[in-house]
Structures are given as structure tokens and as C-alpha cells.
Design brief:
The chain has one domain: Rossmann fold. Helices cover 41% and strands 14% of the residues. It is built from 7 helices and 7 strands; from the N terminus they run βαβαβαβαβαβααβ. Strands 3-2-1-4-5-6-7 form a 7-stranded parallel beta sheet, with helices on both faces. By secondary structure, the chain is of the alpha/beta class. Bound molecules: NADPH dihydro-nicotinamide-adenine-dinucleotide phosphate (NDP). This is YciK family oxidoreductase. Pfam families: adh_short. It comes from Paraglaciecola algarum. Keywords: Oxidoreductase. InterPro entries: NAD(P)-bd_dom_sf, Sc_DH/Rdtase_CS, SDR_fam.
């Protein structure tokens, strides 16, 4: 696994938006970036979870975070545009964006996937990333160097039976990252992807109820990958997918 130990306050004065910041990997990521000095914008569905992350960050003397309660399933272009305007008004620019939230949806035979379920997975996992990235591009351009991180999966590299919409959406996520990386090559915005690999979270427990969670790595163990890709002063990677499982 990538081991990366950046300077203690390397994210001072940086503003980073994380989707799905109330739980699992996104929660740990928000606290970790705040520990390194970032002002984090916590976006998620359940307000109480976002407030708990907010409290944890204040407890460790991190910069005061912002909370954006938003269900990606129902959000429209106007929601993202309003959010982008608020970010520019409040912070002037955006230095980092982590597309982390995902919806697994139906796990089962392809023949049984309903159109409703297919659309719900694509709405949360793909359409929201398209609209949000597009709305936030002006704020990302205003930063000296900004980094956008998408979240992939093993199932976005090799399709797997019964994982229909989720697996296809993770291929599409890699595709969106590559299109953007190519289009914005040699600019101030980098686009990359992280494949966390099996990690002890509630999404994992729901998807693999028979698995022993104690045998899985915790979100803490993969924070190096996210720190590395957010360190725009020390790396110029773009268009890459980093696999957090690689030994
Ligand atoms: P969790 O379920 O633990 O956390 C996901 C977060 O996303 C939650 O805070 C959840 O909010 C939020 N979220 C889900 N749907 C929406 C929505 N419609 N609108 C807004 N927020 C939403 O997941 P993980 O931490 O495990 O997963 C994080 C990322 O890592 C995902 O992209 C996943 O695909 C990927 N991944 C995870 C692996 C693993 O083994 N854990 C393996 C490979 C990839 P709320 O709690 O309020 O519902």
C-alpha cells in the first residue's frame, strides 16, 4: 500500500469538498484532511452524521468545517450551481473535491434489475458527479492548484456477475475521470481516481453480510492514498487510478 507522510500543515488554507462525509471512508477522510489543516465542506444525506463529523473536527482544533446536507439522488443542476456560488462567495475558490459517496443498489441477476434501480444508482454515482464537477469547475480554476479525486472499485476494473448498475457505474466513474484529466491536461486542475479495495464500512457490511469485518482494513489505513493525491505541491499526477490494496 502507498505510504505517504506529508508535511504536518500542508493543507492549511485549502478548502476541500467531500461527498459522503458522514460515514465510512468519507468521514475518516474529512477528519484526516482537517488534521492537516484543510477547511472541509462536508456533503452528505444524513445531517446528524455530518454534525457528528463537524463536532469531531472542532474537538481536534481543526478549522471550522461547512455542512452541506444534500441527497445526491434528488439533486438538480440548480442545487449544484447554488452550492458552487456559495463556495465562491464564502471561500473564493475550491482546492479539492472528493467524489466519495456511492449507492450500491440492486445486487442480483441482470435480468431482474429494474429501470428504477438502474436510474437511482446512476443518479447518485454518475449523474451527480457530472453536474457537481461541471458546476464546481469555475471554483476549482480559481485555486492555484486543485485536485479532484473520484472513487472507483475492483468492480470498475473488471465487471462482476450480479453487481449490475454499481459495477457499470464504477467503469463510468473511471471514464469520467479520464475524460476530464485529458481535457484539463497542463492546467491547474488534476483528476485522479482511488480504488479503496475492501474496507471496513457499513456499505461493505451491507454488500457482504457474510464477511468478517475484523479481517478488513479500516478507513484509516488508506488515508495515505488520499493525502498523496491532494498534495498538489508535491505531485503532478493526473489521469491515474491508485489502488490502495497494492502492497
Ligand atoms: P459508506 O456507506 O460507509 O459511506 C458512504 C457515504 O455516502 C455515507 O455517508 C452516505 O450518507 C453517503 N451517501 C450515500 N448515498 C448518498 C446520497 N444519495 N446523497 C448523499 N450522500 C450519500 O461507504 P464507504 O465509505 O464504504 O464507501 C465510500 C466509497 O468507497 C464509495 O464510493 C464506494 O463505492 C467506494 N468503495 C468502498 C469499498 C469498501 O469496501 N468499503 C470498496 C471499493 C469502493 P448516509 O450515511 O447519510 O447514507
Amino acid at each position: 500500500m502507498l505510504k505517504y507522510l506529508p508535511k504536518k500543515h500542508f493543507l492549511n488554507n485549502k478548502t476541500i469538498l467531500i461527498t459522503g462525509a458522514g460515514d465510512g471512508i468519507g468521514k475518516r477522510l474529512a477528519i484526516t484532511y482537517a488534521q492537516y489543516g484543510a477547511t472541509v465542506i462536508l456533503l452528505g444525506k444524513t445531517v446528524k452524521k455530518l454534525e457528528d463529523v463537524y463536532d469531531e473536527i472542532i474537538k481536534i482544533d481543526g478549522p471550522e468545517p461547512a455542512i452541506v446536507p444534500l441527497d445526491l439522488k434528488g439533486a438538480t443542476a440548480k442545487h449544484y450551481q447554488d452550492m458552487a456560488n456559495t463556495i465562491i462567495d464564502q471561500f473564493g475558490h475550491l482546492d479539492g473535491l472528493v467524489h466519495n459517496a456511492s449507492f450500491v443498489g440492486h445486487i442480483g441477476p441482470f435480468g431482474q434489475i429494474t429501470e428504477e434501480d438502474w436510474n437511482a444508482v446512476f443518479q447518485v454515482n454518475i449523474h451527480s458527479q457530472f453536474l457537481m464537477t461541471q458546476a464546481l469547475l469555475p471554483a476549482l480554476k480559481k485555486s492555484d492548484k486543485s485536485s479532484v479525486i473520484f472513487t472507483s472499485s475492483d468492480l470498475g476494473i473488471k465487471g462482476k456477475a450480479y453487481w449490475g448498475p454499481y459495477s457499470v457505474s464504477k467503469f463510468a466513474t473511471q471514464g469520467m475521470m479520464q475524460v476530464l484529466a485529458d481535457e484539463y491536461e497542463n492546467t491547474n486542475i488534476r483528476f485522479n481516481c482511488i480504488n479503496p479495495g475492501p474496507t471496513r464500512t457499513s456499505l461493505r457490511a451491507k454488500a457482504f453480510p457474510g464477511e468478517d469485518p475484523s479481517k478488513l482494513k479500516t478507513p484509516e489505513k488508506i488515508m495515505s492514498c488520499y493525502l498523496y493525491l491532494m498534495d498538489s505541491d508535491n505531485n503532478t499526477d493526473t489521469g491515474k487510478t491508485i489502488d490502495c490494496q497494492v502492497k
